Amino acid sequence: MTEHVQQVRRLRNDGVEIETTRTITNDGTDAQSPTNTAARVAWYIAGAIIVLLAIRFVFILLGANRGNGFVDLIYSASYPFAAPFFGIFGYTIRYGISQFELSTLVAMAIYALIAWGIAQLVTIRHPQ
User: Fold this and answer.
1) What are phi and psi of 18, to 5 degrees?
2) CA-wise closest residue to 7 among 38, 34, 29
3) Contact at 8 Å (CB) between 6 and 32?
4) For 47-88, how does the pLDDT look when each residue is reduced to its tens digit (9 = 90+)?
5) Which residues are 8's β-sheet partners?
6) Which of 100, 75, 78, 74 lies closest to 89, judged by CA?
7) DSSP labels for the chain?
């Protein structure tokens, strides 16, 4: 876990005191840098997809009825993210019947790995 440290500088400029505050992480990088922002955006998007897939997993596990508007919304919104993984275990879609959708769990893990890879890629520090 990254620890945030507040760094305060007070400068005198023609008798006027200016205070600047900067948040730095324990590895010495600036928390407000564009690379850290890009990593947070990647994790946020992946988190939203993973939560959507987790809700889908629970609904399919419990055999939720697609006739309900909210359930249909979750199934429809999560389908594009889950569909590429359906063929892994020979899955056939049957809504309204309780199933353990292992392919959705695999999809959640893959999206988390993709987000981790993107976050690592954008935060690579180049030697100065």
Assistant:
1) -115, 130
2) 29
3) no
4) 999 999 999 999 999 999 888 999 999 999 999 999 999 888
5) 21
6) 100
7) -PPEEEEEEEEEETTEEEEEEEEEETTS-BTTSHHHHHHHHHHHHHHHHHHHHHHHHHHHHHT--TTSHHHHHHHHHHHHHHGGGGGGGT----TTS----HHHHHHHHHHHHHHHHHHHHHTPPPP-
